[in-house]
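Structure first, sequence second, as always.
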């Protein structure tokens, strides 16, 4: 039988930016909360989603917006209570919506009880984390100026070793210094994690989105190779020990539940991904890779480079054909908004808050892209109404720890301020973290208090309420497209065949038995002539398009995307 998670569309909620209510211990505090999520379950159901991925709601000091957990067994009071969480599970189940939790187990918060205890070298918790003495200097001393245990650099552009005066040792943190890495060579750590998994599965979770799940196991702490980005990766990315941990979690816990896992696998390549997702190995059910969103960025995702549709098609083809099942996404809480990244809303809104021309068309075109690929689509809150990047004025308005780390690093490299800001503004993770734009009222209907992060000034033009009643809106486009996908086995799991691409155009086919679709997308503000040889199969009926055309007539309009039922079956590869 086909797994249920292959048949559903998922919706990611970033709770602090979703909906604030007066109902928690901190009413109208400018942070979204769990009762707020409950009020929108019907909207999520209407959209057509059957899974919610909930970003962390656990207790956390918020050094990295909840990805630094200080207690895995409790809900942070700003989000509500355990009773609220139980109500959310129940209300979601009543609507046949499954909830997957965010599982952040590479690291905890430095305020987690385990870490506080681990600061004492005599404590049984010492070994829960990775503590190391300073490296010996050439003269054999470990005295100041001290040398950290190795030369690794971290994901947030800074140091990975933090010195602890009291014990005279360093601890490892691949992310912020308030996120110490757990030691997976210690079997006790794995047992603790299994208990956490069971706790949430027993409460009603249907699986986990597993944060940076391919870097848990540090095979060695030797120096890393020279690298522009994260140094040291070869000692901990997708190691054999990591595969073994995933198999253990699967056989000891997940196998006893009807649940699934989607891994967030940093810097993963296809060969690693094949191992991680190979059904017979029993590790992950699917994973998020990053390569498609990095085709127009250098050094991971910060320095821009030209967008080429043919490059995008090449990357998509590789993953669509390379893995049996993909987790599909164009946005999440770590990425820029897709209409501002691949779409037409590159510049922030004009001073009157009006979105740029073709904003809407490109938002719909990108919806066609995501929802006509093979796999389980994940839609990030706000994507379904075409929310854009934020119109930040300066770094002071940015909260993201990664953006600040990047600024510091680039400053060290003498990159001028205007360039640093230009790049950060386009790539900052805060772009997608601004509050959900529910209506045109105060604070976009998100909160009656001061929102924790600024609200995009275009909320009067781009908001849920306005789109709900407009049959031609981006929102209703998503709804119709999702409904169409849900009825088509071919769109969900059919074969993916690339047909044509150039710098700004891409055409591909999906097919399953007799059923077949052609998808043609124009990623530019210029009209694009279609290749002659494609005329025949592109002359079929347009089922859905980001414009209101019914026939392509040999060209695509600016930012036009079309889903076509081909009328000639014989001429396709
Ligand atoms: O993200 C992992 C991660 O590597 C990204 O933060 C990365 O730095 C960026 O997206 C690409 O350059 C996960 C979470 O999604 C993120 O929010 C957390 O900050 C991070 O792990 C640490 O838990």
């Amino acid at each position: 039988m086909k797994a249920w998670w292959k048949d559903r569309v998922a919706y990611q909620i970033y709770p602090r930016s979703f909906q604030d209510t007066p109902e928690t211990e901190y009413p109208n505090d400018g942070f979204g909360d769990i009762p707020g999520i409950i009020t929108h379950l019907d909207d999520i159901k209407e959209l057509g989603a059957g899974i919610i991925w909930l970003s962390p709601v656990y207790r956390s000091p918020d050094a990295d917006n909840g990805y630094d957990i200080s207690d895995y067994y409790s809900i942070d009071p700003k989000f509500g209570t355990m009773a609220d969480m139980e109500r959310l599970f129940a209300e979601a189940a009543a609507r046949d919506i499954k909830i997957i939790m965010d599982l952040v187990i590479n690291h905890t918060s430095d305020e987690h009880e385990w870490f506080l205890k681990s600061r004492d070298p005599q404590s049984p918790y010492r070994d829960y984390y990775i503590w190391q003495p300073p490296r010996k200097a050439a003269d054999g001393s470990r005295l100041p100026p001290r040398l950290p245990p190795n030369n690794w650099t971290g994901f947030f552009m800074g140091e990975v070793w933090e010195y602890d005066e009291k014990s005279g040792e360093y601890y490892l943190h691949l992310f912020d210094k308030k996120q110490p890495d757990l030691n997976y060579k210690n079997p006790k750590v794995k047992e603790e994690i299994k208990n956490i998994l069971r706790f949430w599965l027993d409460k009603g979770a249907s699986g986990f989105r597993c944060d940076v799940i391919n870097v848990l196991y540090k095979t060695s702490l030797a120096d890393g190779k020279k690298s522009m980005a994260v140094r040291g990766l070869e000692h901990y990315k997708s190691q054999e020990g990591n595969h073994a941990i995933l198999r253990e979690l699967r056989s000891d816990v997940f196998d006893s539940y009807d649940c699934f896992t989607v891994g967030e696998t940093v810097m993963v390549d296809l060969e690693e991904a094949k191992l991680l997702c190979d059904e017979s190995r029993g590790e992950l059910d699917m994973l998020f890779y990053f390569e498609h969103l990095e085709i127009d960025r250098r050094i991971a995702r910060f320095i821009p480079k030209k967008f080429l549709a043919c490059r995008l098609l090449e990357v998509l083809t590789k993953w669509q054909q390379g893995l049996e099942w993909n987790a599909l996404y164009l946005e999440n809480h770590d990425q820029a908004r897709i209409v501002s990244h691949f779409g037409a809303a590159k510049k922030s809104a004009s001073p009157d808050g009006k979105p740029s021309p073709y904003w809407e068309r490109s938002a719909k075109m990108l919806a066609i892209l995501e929802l006509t690929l093979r796999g389980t689509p994940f839609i990030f809150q706000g994507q379904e109404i075409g929310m854009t990047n934020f119109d930040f004025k300066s770094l002071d308005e940015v909260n993201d720890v990664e953006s600040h780390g990047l600024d510091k690093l680039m400053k060290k490299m003498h990159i001028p301020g205007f360039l640093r800001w230009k790049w950060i503004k386009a790539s900052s993770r805060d772009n997608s973290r601004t509050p959900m734009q529910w209506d045109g009222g105060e604070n976009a209907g998100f909160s009656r208090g001061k929102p924790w992060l600024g609200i995009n000034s275009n909320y009067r033009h781009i908001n849920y309420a306005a789109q709900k009643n407009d049959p031609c809106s981006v929102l209703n486009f998503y709804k119709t497209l999702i409904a169409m996908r849900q009825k088509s086995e071919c769109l969900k799991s059919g074969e993916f065949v690339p047909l044509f691409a150039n710098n700004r155009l891409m055409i591909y086919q999906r097919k399953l038995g007799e059923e077949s679709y052609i998808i043609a997308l124009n990623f530019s503000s210029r009209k694009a002539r279609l290749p002659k040889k494609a005329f025949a199969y592109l002359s079929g009926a347009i089922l859905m398009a980001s414009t209101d055309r019914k026939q392509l007539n040999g060209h695509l309009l600016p930012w036009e995307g079309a889903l076509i039922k081909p009328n000639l079956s014989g001429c396709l590869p």
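Margin note: Residues 64, 67, 104, 155, 175, 211-212, 264, 266, 300-301, 333-334, 402 surround 1-O-alpha-D-glucopyranosyl-D-fructose (CB under 6 Å).
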